[in-house]
Amino acid sequence: MFGKIRFSRWLVGAAILAAAECASVTAIEFALTVPAQAQFFDSRSQFNNRPRPQRGGGFFDNLFGPSYRPNFEDDQAPVDNSRAPSPRKIDPKAEPVTTTTSIMVLGDGMADWLAYGLEDAFSDAPEIGIVRKNKLHSGLLRYESKGDLDWWHVARDILTPEKPNFVIMMLGVSDRQNIREKDLVKGTDKKKSKDQQGKPDADQSAQKKDQADDQNQPSIISPEPQPGKRVNGIIEFRTDQWAEIYSRRIDETVAALKSKGVPVFWVGLPSIRGTRSTADVVYLNDLYRARAERAGAVYIDVWDGFVDEGGKFTSNGPDFEGQVRRLRSGDGAYFTKYGARKLAHYVERELRRYMNNRSLQVSLPSGPLGPLPADGKTTVRPLAGPVVPLTVTPGNSDELLGGSGTSTARADAIANQVLVKGEPVAAPAGRADDFAWRQGSEANAAAPLAAVR
């Protein structure tokens, strides 16, 4: 019986504890929700004026409510490092300056950063203008991903209406790839079609005449045309055949750049992050240097400015003023503003050298002299005196007209011996610098001279 009583008491106690726990939870929930509801209704007008957050569901909305939004401001979209900052806008209030020297920069994203650095380098010379003519992600293999344009054709079209004083080319980052043979065939067919379009009318008429003569001839059964050969081969990068094709494209591009008759500069590529990428760039720079110098262009080497003491790629290094800065972008290929300025320093040095040489040219008077007065006297000083030839016998000499003209030039024998032949003059006998050794009568003959002195 005592066991039944104890069991009943245990059940009653458990029920009381459960009721108390439920009551406490209810009280706490009521205490938390009532102030929040009161605050919500008191400030309803403020919430009505604000834009309501959109409930998109998800873990954060279900857990913390619609007002919670995590901060994702640090996660930014990827930046295209191949594009340099835009040129500085000209102040409309500033006095306009006439551009006397135009520097045109062509190429890919590397050239865009180079132009940006040159704009800063020549910022103190507003008469020098930097013209950007870039195509990002282009190269000598493909000017654009979908198209039949080539850089040498585009360069010639760009330069035709312009009047640059200097032309600069820098590209090649996108050319580290294989060449498809079908692209070569496409380019050959395109060139043939242009050549046919450019034939004169006489050639076209002769071609039509030949076709008419062929029609008058008896028909000849020709064999059936064989199916065209499929071109699906790949020319691998850094092979001899690849180098031959690429060198030909460099030559065509340099020829297009030189069409304006102004100095042409070809800027080499800097080191790129990665062992393989660095080796590829070295390979391309060797081709650029050889073909540019052969074609008469100036090759500018910038390699040493962007490697460490061991010759390896480095993102940080001294800028053109010697301060340690970050020079390269995060992708390991392009530049920061300090790197672009250092890159431009190499090109600026060559440009200023050409500019200084051009300014030092002296123009001699070449205009015709005016007629002299009748009396032969004038008070006006002429631009240039009479031309006196140095290799012809003057007219006032003693040589007769019609003579042999082989008179020997009169000159001092001692001066000719010392100044022309470089032979020393013998010292007089008995003088202090006379070191000749004499014996017998020669010594007695020199004695009176010593006695007199």
Give a short account of the largest sheet: 5 strands, parallel
Output the number of helix runs.
12
Strand order of the largest sheet: 2-1-3-6-7
Report the CATH superfamily of one domain: SGNH hydrolase
Question: Short description, anyone?
Answer:
The protein is α/β, with parallel strands linked by helices.
Task: Explain what this protein looks like in three dimensions.
The protein has 453 residues and is of the alpha/beta class. Among the domains are: 101-191 and 232-359, Rossmann fold, CATH 3.40.50; 423-452, no CATH class. It is built from twelve helices and nine strands. It has helices at residues 2-42, 44-49, 58-64, 109-121, 151-159, 181-197, 201-216, 240-257, 275-295, 337-359, 413-420, 441-452, and strands spanning 101-107, 128-134, 166-170, 179-180, 234-235, 264-267, 298-300, 316-318, 324-326. Strands 2-1-3-6-7 form a five-stranded parallel β-sheet, with helices on both faces. The longest helix is centred in the N-terminal third of the chain and has 41 residues, at 2-42. It is elongated, with a radius of gyration of 45 Å. It starts with a helix and ends with a helix. Mean pLDDT is 75; it is low at 38-51, 53-57, 62-76, 198-203, 209-230, 396-409 and 449-453.
